[in-house]
Specification:
globular; 445 residues; 17 helices; binds (2Z)-2-iminopentanedioic acid; 5-stranded mixed beta sheet; Rossmann fold
Length: 445
């Protein structure tokens, strides 16, 4: 494989798909060596086949808002790769959603799902619908209209969507209700369901919890511990909440959370009340963190600044792709940060990752760190297929085991000659090998 040539061809075919091309480039750079040492891959054109989604569905979503006005959005589902299992991945509702974003997320999902060791292929979907400021009734009508199209192409053994940014328990409920009505079946076709109708305990907190289990193993391997360390978290959604909860439980100090309006500095670290308040903040649907500092006067709101502005040992991006750039990385390094774990998908730009790796600090990529979310979705699918429910302890211990294995796989494939663990390389190689082998064995399809 010639990475440059493949990237040139792909860029010519899909000009402007910036995030997607960025995600592919990172994977290719990581796997080129193992790829080229295995001639079977080249012969079967594994990479050329892997970078094109199996299929993409786009559809119009028409709904009526509370004022009686007709609204039109675009819906998508990218079924990227189904070599190791049914397509699996979230739905993102956000005004910036476009095909490049969903292709990047779907591509990442292939390797992430492979890392979980569960049988799940990669997929992603969503809409440019903006949930901000919408009433419950509007959210419901949109979700119903969205599912009216999507239901034809998904199924419990075909493609199993879940939540992502802008899609939480409420949306999954509305989507599931409509699917059930159309398909006349009560199956595990979506994950992140409510606990009384097929959901799995621990799924709501799984992404954040899993991330902290991964971080624990990473610190342990480096001879460090989380206890007493300053942790900066970006975002205040479901994932950030799970990460803040587990950080605090494990004795870390969450000294910052942030939103689009700025950062809240929490000098003594978050307490339980503050963690609970994150949920109120999210439920207020205003997408700002400033009220946090009014509610807790010991905290300070700094408008227009990111979480990376606050001095911390460990940085956990928990919001969006490319939310931590080269300048942010410099600021963190200057402030003595020695570990960064992406909890968001592709949270760091290539410049930021390069800076962290050159400084030889601990850095782990989203597809490994945040895999606990989709892994627990996989556990939800298993429980649905078996028609049983596991206890929270059972699910949590399985999640913990999966994160431990993912960490192990990253180390196995990521150790450099000088002993530095390149978690990006490790995660990409470990995730890729399993999918590539499956593709070889399943023939040219
Ligand atoms: O990015 C992700 O892994 C998710 N949004 C979760 C996907 C899932 O199927 O649970």
């Amino acid at each position: 494989m010639n990475v440059e040539k493949i990237m040139q061809d792909l860029t010519a075919k899909h000009p402007g798909e910036k995030e997607f091309l960025q995600a592919v480039d990172e994977v290719l750079e990581s796997i080129v060596e193992v790829y080229n040492s295995n001639p079977q891959f080249e012969k079967a054109k594994i990479i050329e086949r892997l970078v094109e989604p199996d299929r993409i569905f786009t559809f119009k979503v028409v709904w009526v808002d509370d004022k009686g006005e007709v609204q039109v959005n675009i819906g998508y589902r990218v079924q990227f790769n189904g070599a190791i299992g049914p397509y699996k991945g979230g739905l993102r509702f956000h005004p910036n959603v476009n095909l490049s974003m969903l292709k990047f997320l779907g591509f990442e999902q292939i390797f992430k799902n492979s890392l979980t060791s569960l049988p799940m292929g990669g997929g992603k979907g969503g809409s440019d619908f903006n949930p901000q400021g919408k009433s419950d009734a509007e959210i419901m009508r949109f979700c119903q209209a969205f599912m009216l199209e999507l239901w034809r192409v998904i199924g419990p053994d075909t493609d199993v969507p879940a939540g992502d940014v802008g899609v939480g328990g409420r949306e999954i409920g509305f989507l599931y209700g409509m699917y059930k009505k159309l398909a006349r079946e009560h199956t595990g076709v979506l994950t992140g369901k409510g606990m009384t109708w097929g959901g799995s305990l621990v799924r709501p907190e799984a992404t954040g919890f899993g991330a902290l289990y991964f971080v624990q193993h990473m610190l342990d391997k480096a001879g460090k511990e989380l206890k007493g360390k300053r942790v900066a978290i970006s975002g205040f959604g479901n994932v950030a909440w799970g990460a803040a909860t587990k950080t605090t439980q494990l004795g870390g100090k969450v000294v910052a959370i942030s939103g689009p309006d700025g950062v809240v500095e929490i000098p003594n670290g978050m307490n339980e009340k503050m963690i609970d308040y994150m949920l109120d903040l999210r439920a207020s649907n205003k997408n700002i963190v400033a009220p946090f500092a009014t509610e807790f006067p010991e905290c300070k709101f700094i408008a227009g600044k990111k979480a990376w502005h606050i001095k911390c040992d460990i940085a956990l991006p928990c919001a969006f792709q490319n939310e931590l750039n080269g300048d942010d990385a410099k600021e963190l390094l200057a402030n003595g940060t020695w570990a960064v774990a992406e909890v968001s998908n592709m949270g760091c730009t290539p410049e930021a990752i390069k800076a962290f790796q050159e400084a030889k600090i601990l850095f782990a990529p989203g597809k490994a760190v945040n895999a606990g979310g989709v892994a627990t979705s996989g556990l939800e699918m298993t429980q649905n297929a078996m028609h049983i429910n596991w206890t929270a302890e059972e699910v949590d211990s399985k999640l913990h085991g999966i994160m431990k294995n993912i960490h192990h796989a990253c180390v196995e494939h990521g150790v450099e000659k000088d002993g530095y663990i390149n978690y990006v390389k490790g995660a990409n190689i470990a995730g890729f090998m399993k999918v590539a082998k499956a593709m070889l064995e399943e023939g040219i399809i």
